[in-house]
């Protein structure tokens, strides 16, 4: 198998509101849009984010057509503290304040207008090992 691209597709009540939030605060660009559908990308994200209006009759399988409860959309960044300050300055409400887990994950969370939780993460060096090393 050879994967040529990746995407995450989320069912939300208002795809335009979520798309505008990612565009304004995270620098995503709209690639395609139609009634009840918006596809966004940015060159360094590694995947597209797609918002689908909840209840679209074309969504398959129908059993998975509800909102994605418990889902986090996570972006790893180079300077978590700068991103935290930037989003606060832009007036974005912080859902989970910035904190560092014992395993080296420094993160915070915001929630978009449809309730999608967006988490920014920076892996900190722990115990002499860089947790972000591939």
TrEMBL record:
Residues annotated as domain VOC: 1-123
Source organism superkingdom: Bacteria
A Pfam family that the UniProt record links to this protein: Glyoxalase
Regions crossing the membrane: none
Matches recorded under InterPro entries: Glyas_Bleomycin-R_OHBP_Dase, Glyas_Fos-R_dOase_dom, VOC_core
Descriptive protein name: Glyoxalase
Species of the source: Glycomyces buryatensis
Organism placement in taxonomy: Bacteria, Bacillati, Actinomycetota, Actinomycetes, Glycomycetales
């Amino acid at each position: 198998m050879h994967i040529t691209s990746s995407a995450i597709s989320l069912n939300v009540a208002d795809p335009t509101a979520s798309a505008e939030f990612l565009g304004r605060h995270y620098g995503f660009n709209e690639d395609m849009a139609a009634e009840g559908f918006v596809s966004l990308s940015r060159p360094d994200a590694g995947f597209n984010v797609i918002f689908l209006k909840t209840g679209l009759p074309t969504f398959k399988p129908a059993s998975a057509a509800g909102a994605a409860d418990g889902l986090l959309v996570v972006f790893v960044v180079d300077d978590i503290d700068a991103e935290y300050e930037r989003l606060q300055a832009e007036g974005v409400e912080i859902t989970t304040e910035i904190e560092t887990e014992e395993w080296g994950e420094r993160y915070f969370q915001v929630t978009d207008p449809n309730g999608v939780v967006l988490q920014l993460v920076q892996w900190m060096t722990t115990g002499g090992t860089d947790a972000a090393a591939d």
